[in-house]
Design a protein that fits this description.
The structure is a homodimer of 243-residue chains. Chain A is mainly alpha-helical and 243 residues long. Chain A has helices at 6-20, 32-38, 43-55, 73-80, 84-105, 108-120, 127-141, 145-160, 162-172, 176-191, 195-220, 223-236; strands at 59-62, 66-69. Chain A is elongated and about 65 Å long. Chain B binds a DNA duplex (30 and 30 nucleotides) through α3.
Chain lengths: 243, 243
Amino acid sequence: MKSRRRFWTVVDKLEALIEKGEYPVGSRLPAERELAEVYDVSRPTIREAIIALEVRGRVEVKTGSGVFVTDSEQSGRLLKNISAFELTQARALIEAEAAALAASTIKEDELHALKQTLEQMTVPETADEADHRFHEIIAKSTKNSAILVSIQNLWELRRSRPQIIAAYEDVCSQGIEQRIKEHTEIYDAIAARDSASARKAMHNHFNRLINALFDASEAKALEEVKRKTDETRGLYSISHLTQ
Amino acid sequence: MKSRRRFWTVVDKLEALIEKGEYPVGSRLPAERELAEVYDVSRPTIREAIIALEVRGRVEVKTGSGVFVTDSEQSGRLLKNISAFELTQARALIEAEAAALAASTIKEDELHALKQTLEQMTVPETADEADHRFHEIIAKSTKNSAILVSIQNLWELRRSRPQIIAAYEDVCSQGIEQRIKEHTEIYDAIAARDSASARKAMHNHFNRLINALFDASEAKALEEVKRKTDETRGLYSISHLTQ
DNA sequence: TCAAGAAATATACCTTACCAATTGAAGGGT
DNA sequence: ACCCTTCAATTGGTAAGGTATATTTCTTGA
């Protein structure tokens, strides 16, 4: 039941070579016919593999000239090294602005849906999902798809990185009333169409999260690590950005 | 200088049909040979197009059975409908916060590199590239990878959507001195480690861009369209968000 | 009648072989 | 020194046909 299509194996091999630095950024890959011979497949199969790499953004094909390694695999590398602190800070900045914007663009039905998530947040089973929906409704209420996808991307990041999931799990379970209180403050500000307060409330929400993350990591850390953490706490704080 | 490879046009057409609902989620596409006949290309070309769609996650190929439309084209659908206004507003909000953050996290060498881009901006040939680097250096200066990738994603969006490219081209060419002045104000604020001013300067920069975009679209629009544009101008304005 | 197995069919998979279009460099003429 | 032509290398694209796999249809036996 193997039977992966042949070009995928070629894609994997070429991608590995690019990763390894065998084909540096900007360099040209061997000609189609050479690759066909090396990997013992036909030329169309090589073409398919190269198209897959092209769609993935790893290479660029120049007609009559050759296939060249693209620069872009940097962002993929970046994604792997994002910490929970960075993610939270980014969400704080972006979602605070989204909340401020939403305060003036949100519609009644969205406001109603937002209030409903607050109620769902009191039930432990649906709390996490409600949290997600709460932030997503605000993002959608901005009526700006670019902001929405930015926030969705960050959420996806949180969902997909194991280390970040672990970090959040420690934090979310504790302080349920606090969590609801913060979300309620955000809701109230948006419902009152108060952009500045909405921004502040969202900042406050995430600032508490960041500090909770630090506390959690502190609890786990050894003494010498603890000292380092304190030093960098200031770097990821957002409290000084509010006014 | 057209000469896009043939399979891309097939990809576009198939994607459009999927988008349109001609091929609903879960349904099977016509056979290779049929598609080859319909679009008047060879079967390998059809195969290439399908592989591109597969890598993009739009379809799934089942050997011996057919190629089926995949469910998860949601976010891809969103990306297609982002207007230049939305993109600019999103950049305004996010990059303004990035600038505010960078004002307290930027290092001397980054500040130096930032100043260099200002000089390159005076040369028309390198102005656009310098613009890009200017914003990228600020993003990197935040020392937050999540913010960096968010900003990079938005830039990639600007680079890849033809309609957005067109909209920006009309605007960027005009008012070079103004553009440099705005960037200089941003630089000065960051160099002075003044977060609030940096945010304000970045807001100002993008706010001018948004209005220029509206003016450009107004110039092209007919009378009745013009009226509508005026009505929605308030929706994408960010001036009310600054303090 | 119905269910299980076998054959036929439809489909994607992969290859070989060929020609066309584009690029870039080498070479020659001014 | 410069420009133009030519030519080799490369990718772009096509045609035709055999292979492997999945699905459907048909046969056959209980």
